[in-house]
Amino acid sequence: MKYKIAYIDEDDGWLNTFYQTFKNDFYVIKIKINSDTTEINLIQEILKQNVDGVISDYLLDETGDVDFNGDKVIELLTKYNPHFPIMMLTAFEQQAIDQMDNVNIINGKDILDGENEERLKILIAKINSNIDRYYSKIQDTKKRIEFLVQKNNDGTIEPPEEEELTKLFIRMDELEPEGKTIPANLIKSEAITKLNEFVSQTKEILDELKKKKRK
Predict the structure, then answer these.
(1) SS3 for 93?
(2) How far apart are CA 158 and CA 151, in angstroms?
(3) Which among 18, 42, 71, 129 is placed 20 to 30 Å from 189, CA to CA?
(4) Distance between CA atoms of residues 83 and 5, nearest Å
(5) pLDDT above 90 as % of the chain
(6) What is the structure's pLDDT at 62?
(7) Which structural domains are found in the chain, ordered by start?
(8) DSSP secondary-structure letter at 26?
(9) Position 214 confidence tier, pLDDT thresholds 50, 70, 90
């Protein structure tokens, strides 16, 4: 299965290079930064595309069209969903390193020069692995919620599990802020209840927990 990823850059040349480099491995959505781009409409465009991951250039203000860089894009996306697969590809690695909290997501653009096939394969594997782990985290969280909700319904849930369930609902809200679905090949239908079934019970469970804490 090919994942759909967005690549953000202000330069047409790099956008096309990225597309040509990865078109056989991913469905690539090119997002061009221009004078009409704002932080808000950029994030809205990314979310509208319903991509599985995002890769951004760092120096987006190089042409003077915008007053923000890739670190701001990543900051906003992380606030929206702290678990979402995000990476940075830049020709200004040291500058990006100086500005970023998570330097592990930074990769040099020289990897696209076609000179090192092995490095490119590693980057492709890293992108796929990050997305795989994201969807696995969603799947595992749903399974655990399903298990604990059943225990709650049976009246066998323990106090530490009640606290865990509350945290899992919070995590689920982070993982799927707008109910983004999991790719079919990662879902075992017999093991996962639909998220809206969990959500419909959330208020009741949390209200019950609050009552117990007040006793």
Answers:
(1) helix
(2) 9
(3) 129
(4) 15
(5) 55
(6) 85
(7) 4-115 (3.40.50.2300), 135-214 (no CATH)
(8) S
(9) low
